[in-house]
Known about the structure:
The radius of gyration is 55 Å and the shape is rod-shaped. With 249 residues, the protein is an all-alpha fold. Helix 1 (2-63) packs antiparallel against helix 2 (69-123), helix 1 (2-63) runs antiparallel to helix 3 (127-196) and helix 3 packs antiparallel against helix 4 (200-248). The protein has helices at residues 2-63, 69-123, 127-196, 200-248. Residues 12-120 form a coiled coil. Keywords: Coiled coil, Membrane, Transmembrane, Transmembrane helix.
Amino acid sequence: TQLREVTLQEENAAYEKAISSCESRIQEKIQEADSLRRKLKEMDEMENNLASELDKVQTAMNTSKSGKFTESILADKAGVDTDALRSDIAEKLEVKKKELSSMEERVQELEKKWAQVQNDALKQPSPAQREKMLNKQLHSLIEQLEVKQTQAEGLVSEIHLKEKELETLNGLRRRIEGSNVEEDTARNRLRRVTSDRGSASTDYLVDDSQKLPYHTGGNETLYKLMLLRSSFVLYILALHIAVFIKISF
């Protein structure tokens, strides 16, 4: 979480630096465009003044009824110089107009980029909002972890309980097996006593007919206990797997 916060702070710093640089460039271009507009206005005024003076000179020459030849030559020369100056100014003015048009296009492009940057900035969360979101996610993860820990503790307690039940069943099985062994020992002793008295054949048949149910009952009980024990072992194994899965996810 701390590494993520540091990364977000670095990204925010770089983002703010890029925005500041873009704002500076846009401000420079706007100032340059304003300067070109002022120059263009001054050149328009100069052109208007020259055109006005030229009109005055031509009017004066046309309305003049008398004059010397030299004055006529000087007037013609002045008219030629005025035309050349006017043509030169017009060419420079056209160049400046083209430069101004190109600059205005660049300013418009920068304004569009700046508008896009502002829109992106509005869509992106602020550093405070990002920190709030991260804190909310952290608290949510902590709550989920606490729930998982509670569930895991419950499952562990249940496993311990089942292990105790299994131990109890194992003890019961051992007692039943010991009881069967004692019964077998007692029957063997009884068979030896009856054989000493000379009734081995009859007692043997009777003993066999009585021994079969005991052994059969003991084997069935042992089989059931083995099945029950296997079932509990599988159940405990499944609980362990469930605990691992819940803790992992």
